[in-house]
Specification:
The chain has helices at about 80-85, 125-130, 155-160, 180-185, 185-190, 200-215; strands at about 5-15, 20-25, 35-40, 50-60, 65-75, 90-100, 110-115, 140-145, 165-170, 175, 195-200, 220, 235-240, 250-255, 260-265. It is about 15% helix and about 35% strand. The protein is of the alpha/beta class. Strands 10-9-8-7-11-12-15 form a 7-stranded mixed sheet. Helix 6 (about 200-215) links the parallel strand 11 (about 195-200) and strand 12 (about 220). The protein has 6 helices and 15 strands. The protein has 2 domains: about 5-100, Beta Barrel (Elongation Factor Tu (Ef-tu), domain 3); about 110-225, Nucleotide-binding domain of ferredoxin-NADP reductase (FNR) module (Rossmann fold).
């Protein structure tokens, strides 16, 4: 895995639970695609020993030609709390890119993007990719969270012309209810869809079960702990779904090199 230093351009809280870090690091030259990820490490080894995986959130080119790579994160543990203290000019170590990323949606299906909490991370870049393909009027993005403070997406997405639906578990913003309930109410009017999903494991499982029942293609970007990011440590395995093989007895796939994106029929989420 290629590892290099990246300089922070900006690092700010967009909500109490969503932080956005902008890096002077060229993900385009490294094969950027929505849901691919980097392994980020702080320079302070006393705080962090192993790197952490973060999905590409957005990648864009400034007027001066420099490429800006954005990551979203939620301050939860010692490392992400320390990340909030970094300021412009600080440097972090970035490994990657890694992972497969979301595939291109089929032309005959409407792309439906389902984001749960900090699972909003890959979708600004995916919207950018879909806009380049001229599909803005078809795209539906559902942003879900426990409460209003979990709902955020880059302003460029809100200005893109796609349809954005918001929902929260407590009803503090958008529709009241879970993301599967919001999608179920609209299935009959959306036409043939192809879902792209990122969020916590219970949400992935719920959407997976809906996709299998309703028989629409569904791509899950799984969230697994990783120590290496290139297939050695086997910390990020997910069980494959194989015909005739009971859950718990199947082969295992590594999210870092076989994923992190898997078709819903191919794994036990």
């Amino acid at each position: 895995m290629d590892v290099s230093l990246a300089t922070l351009i900006d690092n700010r809280a967009e909500t109490p639970t969503v932080w956005r870090m902008a890096l002077d690091w060229d993900a385009l030259a490294r094969g950027a695609r929505a849901a691919r990820f980097v392994m980020l490490a702080l320079e302070d080894n006393a705080v962090q020993v192993l790197p952490r995986p973060f999905s590409l959130s957005d990648v864009w080119r400034r007027a001066d030609g420099r490429v800006v790579t954005e990551l979203l994160y939620k301050p939860m543990g010692r490392v992400t709390q320390r990340m909030t203290q970094l300021r412009a000019g600080a440097q972090v170590r970035i490994g990657g890119l890694a992972g497969n990323g979301f595939p291109q949606p089929a032309s005959e299906r409407r792309p439906v993007l389902l984001a749960g909490g900090i699972g909003n991370a890959p979708f600004a870049l995916q919207v950018r990719e879909l806009l380049a393909g001229g599909r803005a009027q078809e795209v539906v993005l559902v942003l879900a969270g426990r409460s209003a403070q979990d709902i955020w997406i880059q302003p460029s997405v809100r200005e893109s012309g796609i349809t954005i639906i918001e929902c929260t578990d407590d009803g503090s913003r958008g529709e009241h209810g879970r993301i599967t309930e919001v999608l179920q109410r609209r299935l009959s009017t959306l036409g043939p869809i192809e879902a792209f999903v990122c969020g916590p494991e219970p949400m992935l499982h719920a959407v997976q079960q809906m996709a299998l029942k309703e028989q629409f293609p569904c791509h899950l970007s799984v969230e697994e702990r990783m120590a290496c990011g290139y297939g050695v440590c086997n910390a990020c395995v997910v069980e494959s779904a194989q015909p005739g093989v009971p859950c718990g007895q199947g082969d295992y796939l590594r999210a870092c090199v076989d994923g992190p994106v898997f078709e819903a029929r191919s794994i036990h989420a």
